Amino acid sequence: MTALHDTGVAATGAARAKVPAATRPAPLAEGALVPAGTAATRGGAPFATQPVDYDAVLLLGFGGPEGQDDVIPFLRNVTAGRGIPDERLEEVAHHYRHFGGVSPINDHNRALRAALQAELDGRGHRLPVYWGNRNWAPYVDEALQRAFDDGHRSILAIATSAYSSYSSCRQYREDLADALEATGLPLEIDKVREFFDHPGFVTPFVDGLRAGIAQLAERGIDVADAEILFSTHSIPNVDADRSGAPEDGFGPGGAYLAQHLAVAEQIMAQLGDRCPWQLVFQSRSGPAHVPWLEPDINDAMQDLPARGRKAVLIVPLGFVSDHMEVMWDLDTEALQTAADLGLAAVRTATPGLHPAFVAGLADLVEERLQGTPPERRPHLTALGPAYDVCRPGCCENTHRGFRPALAGVIP
Q1: How many domains does the chain have?
Q2: To 10 degrees, what angle do helices 140-149 and 171-183 make?
């Protein structure tokens, strides 16, 4: 059984199907532009500068199986609506089965929830932290129901993903809308801004790269002979192009590509631009004829020996924790590719439970409690700080269209 929060309340129904997709938006207060928003957000302004007395925090996760029997039901949830037969799902299941059918993402989110709770408690905030997943127990609707039963009515959500795209931002907002429709709860729900360039997210990568450079030095390899590969999840080009707010006009690759490049540049600037680097992609899935962001990390390594590289430093820039796509796609497949090419390789750390990351999440909560104006919010690139209220038409999914979503202006 999975604890939702410190009182030990357990989640149920792990193997159930996901909550059906919302068919209508959450109720709009009179004159509001943002469904289920608080007074600070319902008017639709990009930044919420009015203090809000939130009474709970909700950590939003992807979810993952907890054992071999959970793997296929979990993958059915992930691929719901696509009609993918179990025999094809089994082709992906071996990644999980290799690790006993257990995804590390759930244990990480349990630990992150506890760490964030301790940080908020230490700052004097009486805010219980709940946790709900998209694809596995505890589900988002279960977490919201528990928060409501505990007497909470105004909730601030934090997605465990830092960047703009459909799957990393808008889909979490859809999850909230689905859960509100399923439960019918009269809740106000806002979401913190995307935190791709918040110092709390960037600092752990800088520290991790410094540690990786030291590891290479211990093996007698100078960083000047290495190449840094900043790796993130590939997504279809059409989804990347539509990531972020249309009004910002990012162009090809959208906000998703621009944000990753900006963060990588910031990290390299802090390290003194000591060696070559590139942004690479991983974990592609779907039909081969559909263009996805490239190059794949394994392809990117192929010509490095011919260019005199002796080593690679693999930085999981798109990921918050060491979940399956880090442990399999990087720690298993990419490191094997490096070994086959004769390249020394170090995979650097994700933010995980780094004190700066946990403190940064608490900072994001505090800026919404206090209504901090955008000019006083920490950000390390020219692209930030990101919006509190997602703009109309942001992060469109070209196959599904604009489904009901919270924490943003319709659609």
Answers
A1: 1
A2: 50
Can you spell out the DSSP letters for 213-276?
HHHHHHTT--GGGEEEEEEEE--BHHHHHT-S-GGG---TTHHHHHHHHHHHHHHHHHHTS-S-
The reply to whether 76 falls in a domain is: no
Is residue 257 assigned to a domain?
yes
Flag whether 212 is in a domain: yes
pTM over 0.90: yes
Amino acid identity, position 20: P
Q: How confident is the model at residue 288 (pLDDT cuts 50, 70, 90)?
A: confident
A 10 A CB-CB count for 83 gives 7
Please name the residues in contact with 272: beta carbons below 8 A apart, sequence gap of 6 or more.
none
Cα–Cα nearest to 52, from 212, 213, 190:
190
* Three-class DSSP category at 295: coil
362: closest CA among 127, 38, 171? 127
Instruction: Find out whether 26 and 404 touch, Cβ atoms under 8 Å.
Output: yes
Contact by Cβ (8 Å): 187, 340: no
What is the C-alpha to C-alpha distance for residues 134 and 103, in angstroms, rounded to an integer?
Answer: 14
CB 198 within 8 A of CB 363: yes
Structural domain boundaries, residue 255: 199-347
Please tell me the predicted confidence (pLDDT) of residue 14: 61
Residue 158 has a pLDDT of: 98
Span 249-264, pLDDT tens digits: 999 999 999 999 999 9
Given the structure tokens 């909730």, which residue do they identify? 155
Tokens representing residue 186 in the block: 């009269």
35 — phi, psi (to 5°)? Answer: -60, 135
State whether residue 404 is helix, strand or coil: coil
Q: Which residues contact 37 (CB under 8 A, 6 or more apart)?
A: 29, 188, 189, 190, 389, 406, 407
